[in-house]
User: Fold this.
Amino acid sequence: MATVTPQFVSVEPALDLAEDSCTLQINIMYEVIPSIVCSMCLSFGLIYCFFGYRCLKMVLFFSGFLFGSAAVLLLYHKEPGLDSHLSLETKAGIGLGVGVLCGLITMLVSAIGYILSGLQLGSFICLAILVLVGQFWTVSSEFVPVGSISALGIITAVFTLLWHKPFMVLYTSVYGAVTVMLCVDYIIGTFVLPDQVYGIFQHGLTHPLCWFDWVVIGICPLLSLIGGLVQWKWTARELLQKEGKLLHMQRGRQPHRKRRPPPLKRYAGDVLAPSYIQSVQERRLGTGSSCSSISTITHTLIDFDFETGSMVPLTTSPVFTV
Assistant:
């Protein structure tokens, strides 16, 4: 198989060329296992780029898996003593275990998956900007890239959590494009882009890129744009419409509560006991005694708020004589 290795050829000043030029040399030398891994990553990158939103659960799983594995690798890098006491198989097992656990969490809890996807999206965009800026200006402090990556990652994480549909389409297209770019960088034999990213955190010590490196870098924005348009127009459109219809049906099935009229207010003067009405009628007819009138008044006060009483309003005020 053929690989391409870059070389910086210094041209003598007598040739009136002050700058170095990059040349390519093709070597027939490919390793089997890295080539298989590269082909698998290339396939996953294309799937992510054009069909990422249709495989949302898989995307959320790999988002957590990448975060957990990267955290374990960073811990090994920061703790040399821990790295020296563990074998390669043990470190690989721990990394895979933590990655799978984080992937399951992000797949089952969608909110955490959206937050981690937004953090990775902001990190990819910020790293690309820092690599381009590092070719023209030197970043003296290592806190500048760390702070900028953290700030942009938090912003995109919040936006992804609020509007997960468009930002997840953007995340899958960018993630797939970055994966394809790294695979192409390995295929042509250079694989200098990871060194450029590592040099950003080493006080901005980056090497100048060759013309074919710029071509490889150009794959990322071009493929991101194409993948995002394809997903938004075709592959993810049907799924987005189904989610919208399902949400509309769920809202339509909710029972609408009818507002009940306010309860009728009952006052003490509006409710009369039957015994009181009977006494009024007896007064009109001239029957009944004074003692019965007094007892009637007492009985009226007792039955005044009885719920089974009559709702007949009081129209006349009787006059009692003792």
Summary: Residues 35-52+109-252 form one domain. The mean pLDDT is 77. The chain has twelve helices and two strands.
